[in-house]
Amino acid sequence: MRRFLMILVLGMTSTAAMAQLNPFQTEPGGPALTGADLDIMLTSVNQLNRSNAVAVGSSDSWANPATGSFGKSTVTAMTEKQGMKCHVIGHDFSVGKPKVASQFKVTFTWCLTPDRGWKIAD
User: What is the pTM of this model?
Assistant: First the structure.
């Protein structure tokens, strides 16, 4: 019984750590963007955030032909948090090949940090 509880606790810790590493994990053990998907998506989000012409409604699409995952990020609001310029961005994405793809939508606030990098604020 003790061993079972230890395995259960370790499994829960791993799931929590995984969610912190991949904020686009849809649910524990569920479909998730791969590391390559995240790299492509984050490149797209960075281009969107760094655009001089970014405004509410601006968007950028991305796709990974190797995994079949794809998505679109759209600025839904522009705001400020703790003195940092922020963009609220809705991320619509599909995980996996089109015939079995799971579709998701998440929204994050991305803020420009003092070191000039864009980070998820919430």
Answer: 0.72
